[in-house]
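Sugar ABC transporter permease structure dump, as promised
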Amino acid sequence: MAMATDLRPSRNGPQHPPAKAPPTAGRSLRSRLTRLDVKGAPYAFISPFYIIFAIFGAFPLVYTLWVSLHDWELASGTRKWVGLDNYKYLWSDADFWHATVNTVAIFVLSTVPQLLIALFIANALNRRMRVPTLFRIGMVAPLVTSTAAVAIVFTQMFDHDWGMINWALGLVGIDPIGWTTSRGWSWVAIATMVDWRWTGYNALIYLAAMQAIPKDLYEAASIDGASRIRQFWQITVPMLRPTIIFTTIIATIGGLQLFTEPVLFSVGTPNKMDGGPLHQFQTLTMYMYDNAFGHDRYGYGATIAWALFVMIILFSLINFLFVRRTGGTK
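C-alpha cells r here:
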C-alpha cells in the first residue's frame, strides 16, 4: 500500500508570502475620495467667499462697466450704445471735477487728524490707568450710534444762528461762521462729524497692535534713559507701521465713498444731493446718485462710479508704494 505524500512545506524550506487579495471597488473608491478630500478641502473652505464676491462684487462691477457704455434710462427704457462718449463727457464735466475736489478735500481733512488723534488716544489707553475697560468701551460708543442721529446733532451744533459752535465763537468775539454756506467751512464741519465717529474705531485697532509689542523693548529703552516721548516715536510708531498703513487704506476707501454725512448735513436744501445751494460739499457719491436716480441717467451714473473706483485703486497703490518704500513690507 502506497504511503500518502505530505504536501505541507517543510519548516526549513523557502517561505512564500501569501498572495494579496485583489483591490476591491470599495477600497479604490475610498482611496480616491480620500485624495480628493485632501486636495479639494482647502478650496471648498475658501469657495464661499469667492462665490459671494462673484455674485455681489465682480458681476455688479462688470455690469456697471457695461451700463457706462450706454445711454441707459430706466423710465423710458432707453438702451443706446454710446461707447466711450460718457467718459469723454466726464473728462470735461466741471461738476464732476467740482465734486472730486470736495471729496478729496473732505477726505484729507478727516483722515489725517483722525488717524493722528487715534494714535495718541491708543497710546494713552495702553498705559496703566484706572477703569481702562470703561474708556475703551467709550471709544466704541460713537461707532454704534446711529449716523442719522449724529448728523442731526452736529447739524444743530453748526447752525449759523442758533448753533452751539457759533455761540461759543461769539463769546470770544468771533463772528458767526456759515458752516453750511461756505465751501471750506462746510468741509471742516463734515470732517469733524467723520472724525468723531471713526477716531475711536481706529484707536482700538492701534491699541490692539500696541499690546502685541514686546515689553522688553520699552524696558531696555528705559534703562538706556529714553523718555516716553522718544519711546513712542522710536519704538511704538515703527512697530505699528503695518497697522498704520492698514488703517490709512481703509480710511481712504471710506473717505472717498463719503455719502451719509454730507447728505444729512444738507438739511433744509431742496435737493439734498446738491450738497448745498452752490454744491459746496457735494461728494462724488452724491453726484453719482443724483445723476442715476435724480435725472435717470444711469449710464452716466455708472461712468462716475467707475471713475470713483479707479480713483480708489490709485490711492490704494500710492499707499502700497508708501508701505514698500518705508519698509513695511518686503
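Residues 6 and 139 are 93 Å apart (CA to CA).
lmk if u need the other ones
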